[in-house]
Amino acid sequence: MRFTVFTGAAVAIALTATTGFAQDRAGWPDSFTVGTASQGGTYFAYGSGWANLVADELGISGGGEVTGGPMQNMALVHTGDAAFGMTTMGPAAESIQGTNPIAPGLQMTNACAMFPMYQTPFSITALSSSGIASVKDIPEGARIGFGPAGSTSDTYFPRMIEALGVKFERRNGGWSDLGGQLQDGLLDVIAFAAGVPVPAVSQLEVQTKVNIIEFTEEEQGKILETFPVSSFEIAADTYTTLEKNARSVSMWNFAIANCDLPEDFVYAAVNVVMSDNERMVNIHRAARSTLLENWDKNEVMKWHPGAAKWFNENGASIAADMIHGS
C-alpha cells in the first residue's frame, strides 16, 4: 500500500481549495474525535457525519466516538480527551456548575460552544399491541427504557415522567438495544430524548406497529414549568406512524470544542459545518436547525474564540463576555 506524504505547502493549497482560505496549521492536531452517544441514536448519526465531513474537508483524520452522551461528552471535551463533542443545554449547565455526576464538584469550564445543532424532543413510544396510547395509560411498574446512563434522556426524562405521576421501573441501554427490547416485550415503553427522527424508532416502525405518544396540553404545561425545556411539536412527516403533529418539549443541542484548541482550527471546522446546510441535512434531517440564526440559543457556555469569530463575521453578535478568554 502506498502512502502519499504532503508538504506543508501542498496541504495549504488543498485547504485553500476546500475552505476558501489558506491555513498554516500551526498547533493543529493530527487527528480528532467527536464525542457522540450510543449507536442507534441521533447523536451518533449526526456526530459521526459532521466529524467525517470536517475530516475530509480539512484533510485530517477524524471521526465520531461512541460515548455515554452529553454528560460524558462535557467531561471528555473539558479534559481534552476528545477535541469535540455534543451536548444539550441542561447537562452543559450542570457540568459548568460542577454537578455533573461523572465528576461531582469539577466545574467543566474548558468545554466551549462551537455551533448550534438542533432541538432534542422528548418523545415516548410503545407498541400498539400494548394498548398504551397516552401517558395516563402507562401502568404502574411499567418497564421504561430511558437511554444510556447519564444521557440527557436518562437525566431528565425520568424526572418528567415522575412529575406526571407515573411509577415505573427504570431501565438503561443503547437506543438500538432498547428498541429491540421493546419489540421483544422486555420493555413496556421507551422514552427517548434525541433529535428526530430517532433511528431506532424509525426502524421499529418498519418492523411493527407503534404508538408515538404526545403530551396533553396540561402535561406539557407542567413539564415546561418545572424543567429547562421549550415547547415543541414533532412534525407529522417525521414518522410514518404520525397522522398529525405531536405535542412535545425539547432542549437545544450544541457542538462543543475544547477551549484550548487553536482558534483557526475551530474556525475552519465551523466553516465546514455552517457554510453548507444542505450538505448537513443530507447527513441527518435534524440539521435543518443547524443554522446561523440559532447562535443565540446558547445562554450557558462560553464560546470558543474561533467559533465566535466565524459567527460574528457572518452576522451574529456574540458579546465579548461570552467568548472564552476575553
TrEMBL record:
InterPro entries linked: TRAP_TAXI
The keyword rRNA processing is assigned to this record: no
Signal peptide: 1-22
Top-rank taxon, per record: Bacteria
SUPFAM superfamilies: Periplasmic binding protein-like II
Pfam families hit by this protein: NMT1_3
Keywords tagged on the record: Signal
Listed NCBIfam families: TRAP_TAXI
Protein name: TAXI family TRAP transporter solute-binding subunit
Organism: Pelagibius litoralis
